[in-house]
Every structure is written in C-alpha cells, then in structure tokens.
Write a structure and sequence with these properties.
single chain; 286 residues; alpha/beta; Purple Acid Phosphatase, chain A, domain 2; 4-stranded parallel beta sheet; 8 helices; globular
Length: 286
C-alpha cells in the first residue's frame, strides 16, 4: 500500500493547528531565512566565521578534494544497524525501522534524487522515519518536494506507516503539504503509541528543529506517554539528545550533520554545524 493511501492527511487537526504558538514562532523565523536568502544562523555572519569557511574551502580546492566531496555528497549510502534493547521490551525484537534523513530534494540536481531512488528501491521495513531537511536550500519554490517524496515512498515497502519531523531547511507549510500530498505523519513536538507486527508497542515522538529554529519541545513530545513504553524520539539534529536522555528516551534518531560531513582520520569532524560535542556528530553514540 502506498503511504499516500494511508490517509494520515485525514487527521482532524492540521499540522499548523497542532503546532500552535510554537509553530507561529517558527514561521516568523522562516520569514527571516527568506529575507536573508539562505542564511541560516541566528546572528549576522561574523568575519571570523566567514574567514573560517573560506580557509576550509581553499584548502579543499588546493588539495583536489572538492570534487571528491561533491561526488560523495551525491552518493547516498544505506547501512543496517542492530539496536540492542532491554529484556523488558523483548516484544519489540525483530521490528525493523528505516531511518532516512537530509534527503535535500532539489530541482537543479535530478541525479541526486535518482541516486536515492536507486538505493532505496524495494527496501522493506515495518516503520519508516524521516528526520528532516526534505528540501535543498533555504529559499525558492518547493512544490516539487511532496511529489519527490511520493515517488520515493512508492519504491519502498513499509508495512505500518511513515513519520517525520522538519529540519532547518524545511517550512511549516511544506510539512502540511507532506501530510496532505505524500501521506506522511509529521510529528511537531508530539508523540503517539505505535503497535508493531511483533506484538510490541513503542512511543514514537518527534520534536521540531533543535538547530536553527530551536522550536523543539521534548517534554511536549513525551506528554501522555504511558509508563514503561520503549520510547523512540525523532529530531533533526543531535542538539536535543541530552535532554531526551534525561527524559527517559531509549532511542534518539537524528540527522543534520551528514555523518560529520568532512572528517579527519579517526572519524573526527573538521567543522561543527551543531551546538553539541563532536562525539555526537557522527555514527552511533550512547
């Protein structure tokens, strides 16, 4: 069954209504992103930051690494990871979750979407979760994004539905269209119990972007969570991870860092694009 046929769009309350005052604050910040045409920091870009970016770019060009970086950025990978869960949640054993992030669908890079479609064609899972940044860039039209997400979902074999959160490149309006046109359920600082085909039940929560918009609310995403449920929290970036851990979240899935983007030997990221320790910028962490 295609996800668009699952009719998450039939929800009685729209995403904008569910987002309430926090969503209004996000949309006010979105207008700033548009005004600065792609600029995505809270304050004006400092001279030091501009110099830092320029130096790194120059080094990559001089070392002949720019082209390699471009190719790797457009060569998505799919990895299988086994997650150890407590014995108390043994009913979830065997549950499969497809986690996607930072799809960055753009109109000017059709080869990027094509590579994603080839990689994921026929992939099956019980649940699918997408942790934001559906679109490429911060401004310009994004009418193509829901159609591309629909095309992707048609290639997947997901048994119980797909949930998502928004990233710093996305807009609240895009989130509404993803629900209506692509059949996703966008979690905006909210959560719900989800039954799996293994006979278990987990709490699936999602927070809004903790990075640029900083409109995440972990407590709200866990509100009404029954005691004892295994808790999975979706976020765009790792910046809410410690708060999530303190709130009893068992598994935190995020993206944003692109696997550290560019790393030194030992998988040490050169640049941080998140307000967190470097150990949270790549791979699996506890």
């Amino acid at each position: 069954m295609a996800l668009a046929e699952m009719k998450y769009a039939a929800l009685p309350v729209s995403l904008r209504q569910r987002a309430a005052e926090i969503g209004a604050r996000r949309e006010a910040l979105e207008s700033q992103v548009w005004r600065f045409r792609g600029y995505h920091e809270r304050q004006a870009l400092s001279l030091w930051r501009a110099l830092e970016v320029g130096v790194y770019r120059g080094i990559l060009l001089a070392g002949g690494c720019w082209g390699r970086g471009w190719r790797e950025a457009h060569s998505p990978v799919l990895r299988e990871v086994d997650i150890q869960i407590p014995v108390s949640h043994a009913a979830l054993n065997g549950t499969t979750i497809l986690h996607l992030s930072d799809l960055h669908f753009g109109q000017t890079y059709p080869e990027h979407a094509a590579a994603i479609f080839r990689l994921l064609d026929g992939v099956s899972a019980d649940l699918c979760v997408i942790t934001g940044d559906f679109r490429h860039g911060h401004y310009g039209p994004d009418d193509h994004v829901p159609a591309m997400v629909c095309a992707l979902m048609a290639r997947l074999r997901i048994r119980h539905g797909c949930w998502a959160v928004l990233g710093n490149h996305d807009t609240l309006d895009l989130g509404e269209r993803l629900e209506k046109e692509a059949g996703l359920r966008v979690l905006y600082n909210e959560g719900m119990p989800v039954a799996t085909n293994t006979g278990g039940t987990l709490w699936l929560g999602g927070v809004d972007d903790p990075h640029w918009f900083q409109t995440d609310d972990v407590a709200r995403a866990l509100r009404n969570r029954p005691d004892g449920l295994f808790t999975l929290l979706l976020a765009h970036s790792p910046e809410a991870a410690f708060q999530a851990a303190e709130s009893g979240v068992d598994l935190y899935l995020c993206g944003h860092t692109h696997g550290g983007q560019i790393c030194l030997p030992g998988s040490v990221p050169i640049m941080k694009n998140a307000r967190c320790h470097r150990s949270l910028l790549k791979g699996i962490w506890r």
